[in-house]
Design brief:
globular, 0% strand, 78% helix, mainly alpha, 266 residues
Amino acid sequence: MSIEQLIVLAVVQGITEFLPISSSGHLILVPYFTGEVDQGLMIDVALHVGTLGAVMLYLWRDIARMLVGLGRMLRGRADPGARLALQLVVATLPLVAAGYAASRYLGDTLRSVEVIGWATLGFGIVLWLVDRAGMTVRRIEHLSYGGALFIGCSQILALIPGTSRSGITMTAARLLGFERAEAARFSMLLSIPAIVASGSLQGLKLYQTGNEQLTVDAFVAAGLALVAALIAIVAMMGWLRRASFLPFVLYRIALGGGLLIWLYFG
């Protein structure tokens, strides 16, 4: 792959991974509008691993708190950090089961412009409705195991390209009354086990191919995505502490509607 294509993919992935606008949908669309060959799932996963580094840097305090809490739990002491870590496990299990079933029976059948268009538009409107109606009174510390499972189950919808894993989990958290920045914070924490699982599997496949050039491309893509994602996270969290999801909703409506108009009438 050319360095120009890797830069485009990394910037697109870095900006869209944690914003509620669907990184997978954008990555599928890039080859359609650039004329380049589809980068494939290997590069997609490398880009996700790069964004994993960004979220771990941004949320290092939460991660450290969970690790310390798990250590205390092993010594028989209750700890809120351990509770949060266990909630992430509970919230991740539905996606693991659904992801396995989807990869086995669906494959790449949903990777189409039509699916992305409808999912981008539809779930963008859902985010707007929930964000307007939802209360903003709860923080992560108030999350129950049932709430974590509810948010985790919502991730299953993110297997549809265009839905946005971050978007649907933020929507679910807002439906439960969480503050916007807190909804985004839990969504980012929840991305860690999901990206680790997919990145480990595809990384093993990458190693087994013995394709040195593909390996270099993957590392370059991951590094560039890390930088772009860190910038996007800082900007998004700053925005959500004082404003709503409306700009992201408007972008989704414009993108989804534009894709459908182009597809059906272009």
